[in-house]
Amino acid sequence: MSDNGYIAPAVTEHEEERLAVLHDLELLDTASELRFDRYTSLVADVFGFPIVLITLVDRDRQWFKSRLGWNLKQCSRDISFCGHAILENSLMVVPNALDDPRFANNPLVTEDPKVRFYAGAVVRGPSGYPLGTLCVLDYYPRYFDDEHRSLLRRFADLVENEIAHDADLLALKRNLYARRKSGPN
Question: Which residues form a coiled coil (predicted)?
Answer without folding.
Answer: none
